[in-house]
Here is the input.
Amino acid sequence: MHCDYCATPFLHPNFIQRSPEDVIAEIVHLNTRMNVLEFAFYDDALFTNKKHHIIPILKSIIKHKIQATFHTPNGLFARDIDLNLAQLMKESGFKTIRLSLESIIPELQKASTNKVSTHHFECALDNLESAGFQRKDIETYLIMGLPGQKYPDIEITLRYVFELGALSRLAAYTSIPHTASWDMAKMAGSVWDEMDPLLTNNTLYPCATADFPVEKFTKLRQLSNQLNANVKSET
Here is the structure.
């Protein structure tokens, strides 16, 4: 992908996946020889080329009867989660599932290379639920603080995720040189080329404005926490 706010294409222009055989051999070794019971895939693109990568891995985990729990702390591409993949995830022992949605606002989805739509997201939730996962255990990454982003854009997306029974996880934007969003923030006067990198930290909300001050970012986090608590309390 080439999301406007992501520096990966600049830092790592080539996409390389390990072979499924290599991945499963490592999992089997760590599980059977070293008694590792928790595995985390820190990979946004874990489901890319799924028929030749993650599906063979999951089938091998099931075949080897690996007794372990698997986690995906990074945001997965919801559009790749069909019912077959969801069932394999459940059978192989996946627990922590986080999806990337970022926003339901069309302009912001375009900035995310249209990697997910509301249709893809809803289908992923349906498939995961059909496979045995609970919606209230599925977290959804939403981005806030992008150049030009407005408070209502984020609030409406938070409430959309809540209405679908899933959890929201707000990710604050960090300005990174060599990205389209950096150029937008630079034009708006929020960042500059000689800027101390510490000042681009997402905890400082570098693209905060008079219309969207830091106090409103805090209010959004409070709203997210409140909505998540309501989701978790439902039976």
